[in-house]
Amino acid sequence: VRAYLAGVLPEFMVPSAVVVLEALPVTRNGKLDRAALPAPRVSAGGGRGPRSVVEEVLCGVVAQVLGVEGVGVEESFFDLGGDSLLATRLVSRVRSVLGVEIGVRAVFEAPSVAGLASVVERERDSGVVRPRVRVVERSAGGVALSFGQRRLWVLNRLDPVSGVYNLPVALRLSGRVDVGALRWALADVAGRHESLRTVFPEVGGVPFQRILDTA
Question: CA nearest 212: which of 98, 181, 193, 111?
Fold first, then answer.
């Protein structure tokens, strides 16, 4: 089935696994019950083993991203269930583990561990390694607005009472509410995401970011 579909569909539309069912599960309304569909099983770990430290590390990284026990060096990342989103995660893991910057395009062009190992070795030989993200001290005078923030600021100046970007939410709760736990949960979210506690004060008509502390 996959071979036939590969001849009539773009590569990204070809399913990585095919599951045969006697019948499709349906709900009481006769609609497809997606929650009752069995998870596809993708066999992995075939082919030759790793021949270098880089291949061995990449086998572990790819298996971790795909959620399988192991992968073969010559198996395709996409044949084992990978997609563009997982490819992005794979690139991030390669950067963290091996300290080498490769693009998502490299995963599509060389989707096997052997192919990616060649890309990693080539990038290492080039000497171009993306520096790790590090924490830096912000300027005491404030941080300039991003393009998106400046757009919101301009729109607010044009129509200060507009609520177009407000997000009203109504929640219906049942049972006893643990107010303390709810307060800590919201505080965790606000502490994690600086955008939720960023305001745009102005100095001389020029706005800048001021990120408030969690409290």
Answer: 193
84 vs 88: CA distance, rounded Å: 6
Q: Is 76 exposed, middle or buried (0-12, 13-18, 19+ CB in 10 A)?
A: middle
Q: For position 100, what pLDDT does the model report?
A: 85
Q: pLDDT tens digit string along 129-159? A: 566 667 777 776 678 899 989 998 999 889 9
What are the tokens at 65? 């991203």
Q: What's the Cα-to-Cα distance from 53 to each of 56, 104, 117, 139, rounded to whole Å?
A: 5, 22, 9, 43
Alpha-carbon radius of gyration of the chain:
25
pLDDT at 185: 93
Token pair in block for residue 4: 């036939």
Q: Please write down the HEC assignment for all residues of 19-30.
A: CCCCCCCECCCC
Distance CA 205, CA 153 (A): 11
pTM over cut 0.90: no
- Relative to beta strand 206-207, strand 198-199 is unpaired
- Number of Cβ within 10 Å of residue 151's Cβ equals 11
Residue 194 scores a pLDDT above 60: yes
Supply the DSSP symbol for 143. B
